[in-house]
Amino acid sequence: MTEATRRTPGTPCWVSLMVHGLDATCEFYAALFGWEFLPGPQPLGPYVRALLDGREVAGIGQLPPDRHLPIAWTTYLATDDADETAETIRCCGGTVAVGPLDAGEAGRMAICSDPAGAVFGVWQADAHHGTAAAGPAGTPVWNELLTYETASMGKFYRSIFDYEIEPVVSADFDYLTLHLDGRPVASLHGVGTALPRDRGAHWMTYFEVDDVDASARLVSELGGQVLRPPREGTAGRLALVTDPEGAVFTLVRSAERSSWAAERSSRAAERSS
């Protein structure tokens, strides 16, 4: 388990979801993950924080009725200066769509996209440092960028956050892991034209569960969809699912929760051979 502390810039520190039906979405995730909810800062409208055993693990907000945006989980990357990071993102070919703006006393945020169009957040912590637990069932345990190719995207993110990059050397598999302070924090997976046309390049959130098969069945019973049925990988058992509003995420029962990224890299190397 990891507790909420100030993260090294570039570390995924929070995941958040904006939906049209806030109450119904909270009911879905409460039933799926056992989350409870408390009001959070509301610079963009109604917003709640999801808690698991009293620890904050994610956020869910409500879109204005006239905003018809793609419904998707957003990965937030930590920064010490949201304004400076936003300017760097612009200079490196990315886009800043929202902010930077203050989220009450919690911190300062911006919503951005990389040159391939993948949306991500930037979070400068003040009172709120982000996800307070990662590892137990019901918590986000990994974030992966699914994009067209990793070479240029790796350079983009490294220019902003000074990541160390560990690529999988293969002519058939395009994958790299982002490291900070000597440890893996996220990954980039280039899938070319296999990217879903309706989503394009996007960040994927992996949520830990105790039983992937049971959780996938529960997703369907609660009104979501199973896009890719449960399957085994060296990193654990996985299923790709959506909530009732269409937000895509991955259920995972990690084989070794403490070495998730190493397992992912191993699986990528095996698939490329």
From the alpha-carbon coordinates, what is the Rg to the nearest angstrom?
17 Å
- Kindly report the average pLDDT value: 90
The count of β-strands is 16
Helix content: 10-25%
Quaternary class: single chain
Outline, from the CA principal axes? Answer: globular
**Can you count the helices?**
5
Instruction: Pick out the low-confidence regions.
Output: none
Order of helices and strands: EHEEEEHEEEEHEEEEHEEEH
The major β-sheet equals: 8 strands, mixed
Strand order of the largest sheet: 2-3-4-1-5-8-7-6
Percent of residues in beta strands: 35-45%
The first-to-last residue Cα distance is 33 Å
Structural class: alpha+beta
Organism: Streptomyces roseicoloratus
Protein name: VOC family protein
InterPro entries: Anthracycline_SecMetBiosynth (IPR052164), Glyas_Bleomycin-R_OHBP_Dase (IPR029068), Glyas_Fos-R_dOase_dom (IPR004360), Glyoxalase_6 (IPR041581), VOC_core (IPR037523)
Domain VOC: 11-125, 139-254
Question: Can you describe this structure?
Answer:
It holds the Pfam family Glyoxalase_6. The structure is a single chain. The protein has 273 residues and is α+β, with helices and mostly antiparallel strands. The protein contains five helices and 16 strands. An eight-stranded mixed β-sheet has the order 2-3-4-1-5-8-7-6, covered by helices on one side. The two termini are 33 Å apart. The mean pLDDT is 90.
Which helices and strands occur, and which strands form pairs?
Blueprint: E1 12-19, H1 22-33, E2 36-39, E3 47-52, E4 55-62, E5 73-79, H2 82-91, E6 95-103, E7 107-113, E8 119-125, E9 140-147, H3 150-161, E10 164-167, E11 174-180, E12 183-190, E13 202-208, H4 212-221, E14 225-233, E15 236-242, E16 248-254, H5 260-272
